[in-house]
Amino acid sequence: xxxxxxxxxxxxxxxxxxxxxxxxxxxxxxxxxxxxxxxxxxxxxxxxxxxxxxxxxxxxxxxxxxxxxxxxxxxxxxxxxxxxxxxxxxxxxxxxxxxxxxxxxxxxxxxxxxxxxxxxxxxxxxxxxxxxxxxxxxxxxxxxxxxxxxxxxxxxxxxxxxxxxxxxxxxxxxxxxxxxxxxxxxxxxxxxxxxxxxxxxxxxxxxxxxxxxxxxxxxxxxxxxxxxxxxxxxxxxxxxxxxxxxxxxxxxxxxxxxxxxxxxxxxxxxxxxxxxxxxxxxxxxxxxxxxxxxxxxxxxxxxxxxxxxxxxxxxxxxxxxxxxxxxxxxxxxxxxxxxxxxxxxxxxxxxxxxxxxxxxxxxxxxxxxxxxxxxxxxxx
Length: 380
Prior knowledge:
- The chain is α/β, with parallel strands linked by helices.
- It folds into two domains: 202 residues, Rossmann fold, CATH 3.40.50; 165 residues, Glycogen Phosphorylase B (Rossmann fold), CATH 3.40.50.
- It contains 16 helices and 13 strands.
- The strands form two sheets. A seven-stranded parallel sheet has the order 3-2-1-4-5-6-7, with helices on both faces.
- The two termini are 15 Å apart.
């Protein structure tokens, strides 16, 4: 099949969770199909094309003000379907809710099969953000935003030929929203072979793009609520991720052992230093690639329930779950003291990702999905 992959961001360089997943989705689909990628974000399309091994086009999205959950100009929508016609696409693979809405899938069903990947569940992130809002006014605005996004995503799911999600929990959510919608589960994975497991080090580590609000909130909460409860003579807290923002920077200035490392191109040395990986997420959605990467590195992980959702983890064997500041601090402190237990958790985590979360196995359902769409052809 000829497939047009429409993405809200250019998946190059693969330096964030969404970009990493996109790069692996492309690698999976291009083995059996002819792909063209249309990025709705400007960037180095030539470099992306060389890295991904497919044709890459750009049509930077033009947004406009309005009450709609996602509002783009007609020119952006026209650019998507013009690319589909010019490439002779037999199907369109729409990455996330934004790409699906930009294609105006909620307004009309297209002439070719449309698959939404890793979308139709963003309203959950907005609902969680509303619950964490600092003021009643912000909370009300957040709930309204979540309601608008859910209404949009419900219509998108009903119009799509299939929706791809990253966990069984998300699959149930989409099926509840749009009964009869075809849903495929293709979890996030990890390139376990590229990550060398190491024994417990001497630091606490968090890795994540801090311009992503739920990541930033997680580390602000950790710095405010958890770090003061850790032993005063405890280890450094390493935070690898760009754009921490002024609040986290101010917290780090007051707590010298909270080290903001910025963007780290090679994470192997910081993983090697980690005794414990922390994932104190209170918002967002999906499954966290940062968790899988830390597990592949053989690290003991302390996570909130939200941070570990969607992954086939056994608390106490593969991960430690803690949802309050006191419990989180206690769990981290205990692992820093009991290195043998930290090492056992790390080994179990590594074994789990090797068995269940290699990218090839995680994305195999995409092959089955497109094979069935190709067989249906004009019967659609």
